[in-house]
What does this fold into?
Amino acid sequence: MQFDLTGKSILLGVTGSIAAYKACDLSRRLIKAGAEVHVVMSPSATRFVSALTFEALTRNPVLTQESESWSSDLNHIEIGKQCDLFVIAPATANSINKLSKGIADNILLETALAFVGKIIVAPAANTQMLKNHYTVGSLKMLAVNEYIIVQPQEKQLACGETGSGALAEPEEIYLQAVQALLEDSFWKDRRIVVTGGGTREKIDEVRYLSNFSSGKMAKSLVLALYARGADVCYITTAGAEGLPSDVYVIDVENSQEMHDYTIDAIRVAKKGKMSKATMNSSDPIHLIQKEPYLFMVAAVSDYRPKFPQDGKLKKSLLGESWSLELTQTDDILSSINRDGIQVIAFKAEMDSQKGLDNAKALLDQKGANAVCYNYLKDSNSFGTDEHEVIFITKESEKPFTKTDKLSLSFDILNEAKELSK
It folds into this structure.
């Protein structure tokens, strides 16, 4: 999914790590999203990747010790003034320790010291170098000073050792940059629960009842909320591929699990931050917080097999016809305590005559604050990359024309903000 960073300018700092080549991929992703990218390289970084490579990718001159000019904007003071964000990736242990002490003994560190906006640091170094108490202290100091730290990966490193220290994937750094550029004060740190995907109701160990829901709309909403700075808990049957690692994801299978985890997540959302620690704790959390939201996007089965079986049912024993007894599942929206939370339901209908009325009925029948109504022609309407909805409240109906699901998600969030006003 592609974010729109048109009009944004990013300064990419590259230090002397073997992971410097990954900064090329990062710059490509940012440019593809519409951002203007400028690059500053430490002297040791040019040993791994040439400045010419970044100039070819960004179509902008690269600031190095040798190229710095005071007759143009290509110097460590002026280059940062035209940028909204400074991303240092990879950041070596040496650079991290110097950054935390305000040392500016090369062109990149001079540029960082002069930069007045947000700075993202993505460490890449040998495990022991990062574990060294000096580096640990430096990272803490940077965090205290509101640097955004993108945690490294644990894998086999270039030195042959296995441990934490590999540069985070370019996609992860890209998403952190998106959040830094697009966060919204209304959504920032607001606790949000999103459900997504179609539930799977067990018949036996190899068969289940389900639907055609792909989970793409829910995942797009999660990404849009993340970009706006929200604290998101995503309860899904569709997995977490493509999502930032710090989004709290709960994998579920069936309607009962979706019901139970949603109720629990809402309880936690009303109390405090939805980290892994708080999701696993029953202790009350006393925080001044913003009103939470529930986006009920999941396609939850209305019925489940009454008697799910262990093992595999044999065709020879079932006979030529098979009657499967079903029982109704618990309705999640009817079960939740809606006090102190904004609820936005999603309703897909194939009845062109009554579909809109059925969606409006959720406002009274289920107590939703708003409903996103989507008319589907047939099963081929599922799993598409584009979507259109009507955002319905008791006061108004606002149609959104067909567009990609991420753009639509931002439109929905803009409308959802009005519910708390």
About this structure: Residues 268 and 279 are 7 Å apart (CA to CA). The first strand starts at residue 9 and ends at 14. Residues 255-269 form the longest helix (15 residues). DSSP finds 15 helices and 19 strands in the chain.
